[in-house]
Design brief:
Blueprint (H helix, E strand, L loop, with lengths): L1 E6 L6 H8 L4 E7 L2 H8 L5 E5 L5 H9 L3 E4 L6 H10 L3 E4 L5 H4 L2 H7 L2 E3 L8 H15 L3 E13 L16 H7 L4 E5 L2 E5 L9 E5 L3 E7 L5 H5 L7 E8 L3 H11 L7 E2 L5 H9 L7 H9 L6 H9 L11 E2 L1 H12 L8 E12 L4 E11 L7 H18 L7 E3 L4 H13 L5 E6 L10
Parallel strand pairs: 1-2, 1-4, 2-3, 4-5, 5-6, 6-17, 7-12
Antiparallel strand pairs: 7-15, 8-9, 10-11, 11-12, 13-14, 15-16, 16-18
Helix pairs in contact: 1-15, 7-16, 10-13, 11-12, 15-16
Length: 448
């Protein structure tokens, strides 16, 4: 029997664990600090085990990795290099859903020498986005076409029927992770010219995005898009852009929160102040009762602006106590948002992934739009958990079955990976539509 070690039992873990437990001849150990969370995932399955593990205990972590055939790390990304190095040491394969870090890249040669595959970016974004992109690009190249522009947009949001708060957002994965992603610098290529957007100005660089059948959204740049020209084998591309999708209003509110200082990660004394007291001190306001006057002046906006109403709705102007004595402004923001932005029992989330390919052939030009819209199951798994963890689970199965031959630090852009994964996701109801139309002009993301 093949054995899989799953590290972590967070919000997206369940579909992966249940998929692997359904495979014949596979046992699964879920190891996490809070063993009760692992027990919920295993549900007393005869081929499953729930065990306690502190990943900072390297001796215990190493013993678990050594005793399993494959490790799936669903831990925070900072732990992946440690896990990966132990996998290389004991010649064990590994799967993660996170971006490849510089520390992970540095393990490539050692992994190849050990005959080990460290497969990263096997979630939805990154993950399915890679697989769907390279599948279409390979097909275009096979027909003699050139991809002169590639735009990709993705976002996990409340389904329209669950979109009932002024921010248009609820948390289907780590709230802290969602907010920290808004601090990343971004880079993209527009008409062969690199454009850089610093993290502090990310939300100010939003644009409208219309998605057929769903309406108008807003999007903003997502990390560094430039490496994807090489990763996707399209050196001919003059435009390369990846963006994050949100409902209208999110970006203006996040920009206001950033300017007020709520994205600061530096720990300070809080002493169980109220949210209003903390907010007043953060911006130098004379007292919590004056916040509705201080905040517009601080932001240089009118009192009635929607962003301040949204910040009030979040609870940052409330008299509720902050339940900790030390923490950062970001911790305070996370605490307030978690209280008001959770999914109800029967509410659905929605995952949107859209690629636009601008293609030129000798005698014509085409715009190909690939679209995935997936919904969570009321009372069951969220779309976020399914689309993040099922591709990783399928990759793990393919590795256990010796159907992936590549080794080293990899992402799923090779045919032996993306074809079977996309095929199985389609069977599981995670489907993609594709439309083709002529185009006259190259895409313009942002006007100069």
């Amino acid at each position: 029997m093949k054995s899989v070690l799953v590290l972590g039992a967070g919000l997206v873990s369940r579909p992966l664990v249940r998929y692997l437990l359904d495979q014949p001849g596979v046992s699964v150990t879920v190891a996490t600090r809070t063993v009760s969370k692992a027990e919920v995932l295993i549900e007393r399955h005869p081929q499953g085990k729930a065990e306690s593990l502190d990943v900072n205990n390297e001796t215990e972590l190493e013993l678990k990795i050594k005793s399993h055939d494959l490790t799936v790390s669903l831990l925070p990304y900072v732990y992946h290099p440690k896990v990966a190095s132990l996998c290389v040491k004991h010649r064990k394969n590994m799967v993660t859903t996170s971006y490849v870090s510089e520390m992970m890249k540095a393990l490539d040669r050692a992994a190849k020498n050990a005959g080990v595959l460290l497969l990263n970016e096997t979630g939805v974004d990154p993950g399915i986005d890679h697989m769907l992109a390279i599948k279409t690009i390979d097909a275009v190249h096979a027909r003699g076409g050139r991809v002169t522009g590639f735009l990709s947009f993705a976002g996990g949001l409340p389904a329209p029927d669950a979109n009932d708060n002024p921010l248009g957002y609820k948390f289907s994965w780590s709230p802290r992770g969602v907010l920290l992603a808004g601090k990343n610098d971004a880079r993209f290529l527009q008409q062969d010219r690199p454009v850089e957007v610093p993290g502090w100005n990310l939300f100010e660089n939003k644009t409208k995005l219309e998605i057929c059948g769903l309406g108008i959204f807003e999007q903003y740049p997502n990390r560094d898009s430039l490496p994807y020209r090489e990763l996707y084998h399209i050196p001919e591309a003059e435009t390369m852009y990846r963006g994050t999708i949100r409902y209208p209003g999110w970006c203006d509110t996040m920009l206001a929160l950033m300017r007020l200082g709520f994205f600061d990660e530096k720990e300070q004394e809080i002493d169980e102040k109220t949210f209003a007291e903390f907010s007043a001190e953060l911006i130098g306001c004379s007292g919590p009762d004056m916040l509705m006057l201080c905040m517009p002046d601080f932001l240089g906006k009118k009192k009635e602006m929607q962003e301040i109403e949204n910040i009030k709705w979040i609870g940052l102007l409330s008299n509720e106590k902050i339940p900790f004595k030390k923490g950062s402004p970001l911790d305070v923001l996370v605490e307030a948002m978690q209280r008001r932005m959770q999914y109800g029992k029967n509410e659905r989330d929605m995952l949107i992934l859209m690629h636009e390919f601008y293609v030129k052939y000798e005698n014509r030009s085409e715009k190909i739009t690939a679209l995935m819209v997936d919904y969570g199951i009321p009372g069951g798994d969220t779309s976020m958990s399914r689309t993040v963890s099922l591709p990783a689970a399928i990759c793990a199965r393919l590795i256990l079955e010796n159907k992936i031959s590549t080794r080293g630090v990899r992402i799923p852009v090779e045919r032996e990976i993306y074809e079977p994964v996309l095929r199985e996701l389609n069977k599981m109801g995670i489907k993609f539509s594709e439309t083709t139309e002529p185009f006259q002009k190259e895409p313009v993301i942002m006007k100069s």
